[in-house]
Amino acid sequence: MREYGRSSPLRLQFGLAVKKQRTAIGITQEELAERAELHRTYITDIERGTRNPTLETMWNIALALGTNLPTLLSFHKTGSASSDPDLKN
After folding, report:
1. Going from the N-terminus, what domains does the chain have, and what CATH number goes with each?
2. 9-24 and 40-48 helices, crossing angle to 10°
3. 2/5: higher pLDDT
4. Rounded-to-integer distance, Cα 86 and Cα 83, Å
């Protein structure tokens, strides 16, 4: 079953984390896509929560944003996702 187009709370939170970091460092989706060697529309879809990126893709995005994956994924500790029962272990 293909997951493209469907958003989930976890994908939405990851997308928001990417967008927040991207805007904080002042780069466009196109610039992020170039740095991460992805297509701009793929970055758009990630930020919208409609793509389910692989671990390698998430790693490359984090590096392209000048951070590391654990830091980028730490949104669950401080973001609104921590109160979402679907995102708890």
Report:
1. 9-76 (1.10.260.40)
2. 120
3. 5
4. 9
